[in-house]
């Protein structure tokens, strides 16, 4: 992994000082008081190349302006019943914090169906969670722990992966590319849990295609991963699908408690949704009866990333035809994230 030096940071800062005022404004909104740390993220994403990092960052800022990303948290998905459908089919949530203060983000890779709304709603929802993490969750964690916290931990639940998941390859490619280009180096470690038997065969195909820094971030845990995850977080912060004895996942709460971090009824999603409604009211943009998604420009994937996606799809279809099942690892095709 490339070591980011003070000289690299100073060079990039000098270049960024010269950008136009609109870009400066959205950069301030993005870095949330931590400009140097943000520059480091983009330098890491481009292996220490100052010129490439500067281009990546400027492209990101232009993307934010063109798609009004600074205002996206003031555009709730309405009505709430429709948003509940999005949440029930795009299984992402926050279950707590690690002992070091990093937010623990849970992702239901296998059981997400993305079949209750258009691609634009799912992308809007994903970006809103990214922005809420970066503008609210991470700054609050930094303040609480008295040090900069700019990354999270992701726990990926592989329960339920099947061939039909490949029908969502366009959406997953779009989400992955948005994260790669505009939210780089935001995840400290990816923990894969509840991996089915076929996972090892598929992983042999995927792993060589990933960048070295990405490989180092991924850990495949046995079963639900509970024992390993308890070394870095308290039981209360475990995603609900890790609390079960043995492997397996559940989309529903147990014992009448609301520990399902995917659900709209979970505290994290309630706070996020309330926040978007408050922001909308403050900007006089909220209209309860209005429906319609935010259309964000879908970026073209990097040629190398596109090749990876094609290889994964082709190989997993072959495995699926041979074994009657298929796994898709596009959710963890996380170069640059």
TrEMBL record:
SUPFAM superfamilies: CRAL/TRIO domain, CRAL/TRIO N-terminal domain. It comes from the Eukaryota. Residues 79-239 form the CRAL-TRIO domain. SMART domains: CRAL_TRIO_N (SM01100), SEC14 (SM00516). Signal peptide: none annotated. It holds the Pfam family CRAL_TRIO. This is CRAL-TRIO domain-containing protein. It comes from Capsicum annuum (Capsicum pepper).
